[in-house]
Amino acid sequence: MNTHLPFCLKFIVTGYFVLFGVISFSQTVPKEFKLAIVQMYVEPGNLEKNLSNAGQLIREAAANKADVILLPEVMDLGWTHPSAKEFAYAIPDGKTCQQLCRMAKANHVYLCCGMVEKDGSAIYNSAVIIDNKGKVLIKHRKLNELDIAHDLYAQGDRLGVCSTPWGTFGLMICADGTAKDHVLARSLGYMGADVILSPSSWAVPPDHDNLKDPYGKTWFDAYIPVASEFALWIVSASNVGPVTEGPWKNWKCIGCSMVIGPDGKEKLIGPYGEKAEKILYCTIKPTPRPARGTGWYNFSPEK
Questions:
Q1: What are the pLDDT digits (tens) for 269-295?
Q2: Residue 13 included in any domain
Q3: Which of 60, 137, 229, 250 is the most exposed place for a label (fewest CB within 10 A)?
Q4: C-beta of residue 271 within 8 angstroms of C-beta of residue 278
């Protein structure tokens, strides 16, 4: 049998593989997307009100053409609120997650948010990424929970990433970013994350003076080294509102949600304050990143 291809056939076959290679490469470059960072007011212990408020904010962000929407940590009940013992539900089939899945599908957006989770007798401080068809792509249970919260929340035991039309998203929650040597965020970088989403709940004591001690250094110190080392984005949404129960009773959640770019620089920071509810928007523009082959990002903020 003659194993030599005629010249014209070689040309066709070679052209096919060249074209196929170009198409394959182009598919590894994430598309541009608009991100909404929802610095929402969370009323401690009021599940129905918080879900209603989240729904309104999600609709507003979707109307402003957001592709991906990020909500805070335990946005359903508030951090360490004891109502979690009564109103924590399963993921993905429980009441809270199912309602958020319907919101994502109805508004045709990807949604990332924190919520309490019930699994058997255990309660977790969890977060999910939901696609625009209402399917949970990934669930994360907080690993680096503060010691004062372990009476309520059980310990997570794994990290994960998921593929989206805009690249690979990693998921962590609040203090996961401050684990020793930033090991959890760095692990997401090694797992190929182009963007790390971090639902958070940042709180300060009632006598905190933001003029004398501007909030945010803890997170800059945690995010900047990892973002620059792995050329990835780290985005955190924190809630606003009072802390009425738990170990930080009478503290206040103060927003200051932020975006750190792959150059290790602050790109966006939300307003400070107990009543500073706001949706922040940014457009993330992907460009090829040969070193990792999954795309890196240029950023342009929007008012």
A1: 999 999 999 999 998 875 445 444 344
A2: no
A3: 250
A4: yes
Cβ–Cβ < 8 Å for 294, 38: no
Q: Is residue 18 part of a domain?
A: no
Q: How far apart (Å, rounded) are the C-alpha atoms in residues 201 and 292? A: 32
- Total number of domains constituting the chain: 1
Query: Tell me, what's the pLDDT at 284?
Result: 83
Q: What distance lies between CA 16 and its chain's CA centroid?
A: 39
Overall average pLDDT of the 252-263 stretch: 96
What integer is the mean pLDDT of 172-179?
98
What CATH number corresponds to the domain at position 272? 3.60.110.10
Q: Is the pTM of this model over 0.90?
A: no
Paired tokens of 182 = 């930033």
Q: Which two tokens stand for residue 210?
A: 């933001």
Round to whole Å and give the CA distance between 145 and 266. 25
In a domain, 3, yes or no: no
Task: List strands edge to edge, sheet with 167-171.
Answer: 161-164, 167-171, 195-200, 233-238, 258-260, 266-269
Distances (CA, A) of 238 to 73, 114, 116, 177, 251: 7, 10, 16, 13, 14
The whole domain housing 81 covers 30-302
Within-domain flag for 229 = yes
The length of the chain, given as a count of residues: 303
- The angle subtended at Cα 128 by Cα 236 and Cα 37, nearest 5°, is 30
Give 124-145 pLDDT, tens digit per residue. Answer: 999 999 999 999 999 999 999 9
